[in-house]
Amino acid sequence: MALEDDIRGMLNLILLIIFGYLLGSIPWGLLISKAKGVDIRKVGSGNIGGTNVVRGLGFKWGLLTGILDVVKGVIPIFLAVKFLSPDWQIALVAVSPVLGHIFPVWLNFKGGKGVATTVGTLSVLLGWPNFLILILVWVMVLAVLRIMSLTNILLSALLPLILWFIHYSPAYSVFGLVLFFLICWAHRENIQRLKDGKEPKFKLSKTK
Fold it and tell me: Where along the chain do its domains lie?
């Protein structure tokens, strides 16, 4: 009976990882921009995430993109918490939609920055009170710096510590560390622009 439970648990883990990756791979920013007659990959930074959709289509469509990208992170981790128990298994599922967003199979593994999808996973892992505090801090830092990429990198650097103090789980702390490296890698061009002093300020309106 124990062996059957172990097999069932591993099967659930594998299926949820695959599901999470494929769900994360859905390029909502590209699909929405295409529906509006724009290829977002040819606008601004060329990224398919919500920030660049704001530049190309305006705040409303950027917000919609961001919400859909967040949902990509919420669903797999919600199912993982429901059907899996070891922290390391939940952490593996949690990282799968972020990997899908950054390396989507449908776009030759060239996707977005992974931040919104990371936010989705954290909304479940941190619990609402802690998550809302993190979002408030993020908004305050963004309001001061007015540079989206720098804000995202700075806050992601704190994730291993935040997850440790909330869960005291090595698996979740490693998950936070993996997220930090993934987000830094996805922002490598932004980091170079920051070094050169050429990273644009964040605006809520469409770039003319």
Answer: 2-196
